[in-house]
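Regression test attached.
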Amino acid sequence: MDDPGDNTRLVGRSPARERLHRATELVIETVIRVCGVSAVIFVFGIFYFVFREAAPLLFGGLDLGQLLTSSAWYPDSSNPRYGAFALIAGTLSVTLLAMLIAVPLGLGAAVFVSEFCTGRTKEILKIVIELLAAIPSVVWGFIGLVILNPVIIDLFDTPVGLNILNGAILLALMSVPIMVSIGEDALKAVPDAYREAAEAMGATRWQVTWRVLLPAARNGLLAAVLLGVGRAVGETMAVLMATGHSVNVPDSPLDSVRTITATIAAELGETAQGSNHYRVLFVLGSLLFLITFLVNLTADLVIRGVKKR
Amino acid sequence: MGVFATSPESRRRHRSQQVAFAVLLAMTVLLVLPVLAILGMLVWRGAPALSLEFLFTAPVRGMTAGGIWPAIVGTMWLVGVSLAISAPIGVLAAVYLNEYARDSWVTRVIHLAIVNLAGVPSIVHALFGVGAFVLFFRFGTSILSASLTLAIMTLPVIIASTKEALAAVPMTFREACWNVGASRWQTIWHVVLPNSIAGILTGIILQVSRAAGETAPILFTGAAVFVPFLPQSVNDQCMALSMHLFTISTQVQSVPQSITYGTALVLVLLVVLVNGVSIVIRSRIRRRRKW
């Protein structure tokens, strides 16, 4: 029995225990597999349940043309009209201005952290940027409301400081961390041999960055920007609190607007479940889901392309 | 240096290097400064409001006075319940991806789903929570519905960091274990998980900080503007710090500044402290790793 060649004591045990053992293992592996695919189930679940609430209106009388082109958003009137163009314009304008601020800052910081910093400075900068990502969106909204609002009123001499500019500054600060972290990954993925070859030929650090690294990391940086855009389009609380809450197709960055996300957050609580107003908010939610899905899918394909090379 | 720096071309290159450095530095400073300024402002204006009384009493007089205790308790409920749901699922999902799955179209689809789960706007998660948990599964507006919504929203955080932690365990550890006859699960349970526990913990802590700060997903699924009693079970509604900050800064008139700043400061401190813990653990792991 104690023959060292006999390892039944280790793995064999009695046949009954062995079977029990196998069964346990099978159960555990099944649970693990189910958890493994849970993310897929949840994404389908999100689409299904949001679309389910939207469908009766979507296939029962909603004028899609009006939804996308009219800016008459009167969901509560006796003759309700659901024109979401102003909301779409609100989302686009805030996102666009936010990206004008965030893309140079975010990519600049990514280059700085990745190529121009070492050791302790690098660690500290990364931690600060991580903290930037940790600040909750409702706190950003609060900052827009109580800090940026008076600053914008003073600087631009406008009556209201809750506008596109305010929301865009907040969104820029909120979407920068993901740009820096994905952008830094992209730069890190460029082989060191590229840097060494360029430096050996006498290029300065900046020349290496501009002529070699940026072209080589182009796709990864593009993905970083796309993920930032996805963040900005979907952000809710900050824009709800800081963009002024007026349904309006803007013609200047100092105009107040209302985004798709803010509209859902502001109005869902006041609608009767199952009413057309309630359902049109779910239609807007489905639209948001589709937009961010496409943006994220593109970003992922771009990153995937980088990894394959 | 002197020999190389004399030609005009070389000088030009050095100048461009210096300009680039200055510009990039300025950009980074432009990002770092607002964070410090904002944190400073919150501390400066919010700290005077902080007291044991503020933390441990309920709001009174239509939320224009008193403290934030019910909101703190509510946030703890939401974070705790959502963690209890997302931690096991997230860790096991990462185990599947790192230990069982081969690189195939299945893992590709799962990866894509995780990316999307992280990218879906928080307000869409809220709509999902309403459609699925509040209405379809009839959990009503309750801590359970809100926590389920939060759990699904924060799942990618746990999956990503656990996967990273598992991937850092060297393959030789697993091979050694398999060679003495251990099964795949025994190897995971006795070797892989114990060796990556600190990394998994960081992900779980990050989930906590994320869930504590979210507002939109809990707006319509379980958080309430004001609840006169503390929640007794997951079927109750509750207040939450994030929601409370939203309410008192936009919905209620004439709330004293000290209360709004105080609430914002408590929320930020909570999130920053939790994040700080995870950063410390992570840097400890990096320093102590023996392989």
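Expected vs. actual: identical. Chain A has two domains: 13-60, 85-308.
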